[in-house]
UniProtKB/TrEMBL annotation:
Organism: Rotaria sordida
Subcellular location: Endosome
Keyword Nucleotide-binding attached: no
Keywords: Coiled coil, Endosome, Phosphoprotein
Protein name according to UniProt: Calponin-homology (CH) domain-containing protein
Stored Pfam families: CH
GO annotation, cellular component aspect: endosome
SUPFAM superfamilies hit by this protein: Calponin-homology domain, CH-domain
Domain of life: Eukaryota
Cross-referenced InterPro entries: CH_dom (IPR001715), CH_dom_sf (IPR036872), F-actin_Monoox_Mical (IPR050540)
Length: 126
């Protein structure tokens, strides 16, 4: 078996990442994730993922789905500060344009790895 046959296909990777997003956000009633576009359009899904890992950083229940700018900026700032994941997405583009599925997927994949590394480092230091 070659190493390339061990790697998931792009579609499989998308499905796995979407499943991770669903699992991480399952306790957030205002967030339902089924895709990488419209379900991330107001920033709450990003905030829910970040809040799951860093619940003391902000009060998720005070967020407003209509305040997209704040939601995106908050999620990206905390991800950068706490998990060292730099924003690959531009808030203005997300608010005023269409969400690009591949860009959102790429950021979420980077976020996934950053958060997993953060958790591993936290366990090693405790």
């Amino acid at each position: 078996m070659t190493s390339s046959s061990l790697r998931p296909s792009y579609k499989e990777a998308q499905e796995r990442l979407l499943k991770w997003c669903e699992n991480v956000t399952r306790n957030y009633e205002s967030v339902k994730i089924r895709n990488f576009t419209t379900d991330f359009a107001d920033g709450l899904a990003f905030c829910a993922i970040i809040h799951h890992y860093f619940p003391d950083e902000f009060d998720f229940n005070k967020l407003n789905r209509d305040n997209k700018q704040n939601n995106f900026d908050l999620a990206f700032r905390i991800a950068k500060e706490k998990a060292h994941v730099h924003p690959l997405l531009d808030t203005d583009d997300l608010i005023h344009g269409e969400l690009d599925k591949k860009c959102v997927f790429t950021y979420l994949l980077t976020l996934y790895h950053g958060l997993k590394n953060h958790q591993t480092n936290k366990l090693l230091l405790s």
